[in-house]
Amino acid sequence: xxxAGIVVARTLAAVAEAARPGVSTGDLDEIAEQTxxxxxxxxxxxxxxxxxxxxxxxxxxxxVHGIPAKTTVLAEGxxxxxxxxxxxxxxxxxxxxxxxxxxxxxxxxxxSAATRAAMLAGIEAAVPGARLTDISHAVQSSAETSAAxxxxxxxxxxxxGGHGIGTEMxxxxxxxxxxxxxxxxxxxxGMALAIxxxxxxxxxxxxxxxxxxxxxxxxxxxxxxxxxxxxxxEDGPRVLTLPEGS
Length: 246
Description:
The protein starts with a helix and ends in a 7-residue tail after the last strand. The radius of gyration is 17 Å and the shape is globular. It has about 250 residues and is of the alpha+beta class. Helix 1 runs antiparallel to helix 2 (about 25-40). The protein has four helices and 15 strands.
């Protein structure tokens, strides 16, 4: 899984380098697929329940599962969340980043930073002997702390969350991004989870578009999404989707 995670990290780095005003999300999808296949891996997302691309590219009010397209051209100030998965030798890696296109507003910078901080808090809670919802509670608490510090009532998405991962991309258990601690399965060394909070700058209510994939905020507020694949080990959480050498 670490090898698959390195492929994902390399792919997200290539996408991030290319993501700028005037580039389409379809262009970024082509870069992602080329990078994944050049590493001898297969895109997890392409063909998954009919999904047509190798990355999810969610722009501004799109929360998750945005479909890349040549007609979706990035503009200065856009906020882009890119979710990417790869399969290598039967094992999956899954990670997401939120990218600033050009110069974004201070509010969008804070939103992305709060979401990333919530992910990191969730990762820290992925230790042997903890319960699954200890991660949920850590994510929620971090988001609430950021909201208080930023003076913004961030919306915390509850319909979508993290998941088990290994020989399949989505495995049990579902990992909520909110919840009371001390519930759910006990975490043991060898377990692997995708930890992926999503926050909005407004309401947490979402709507799925007619394409059957793209999820947007109901009030049009912007959204951010960060994710890592994490293994529970005796030495603490090990992030499997960090860049090589990290």
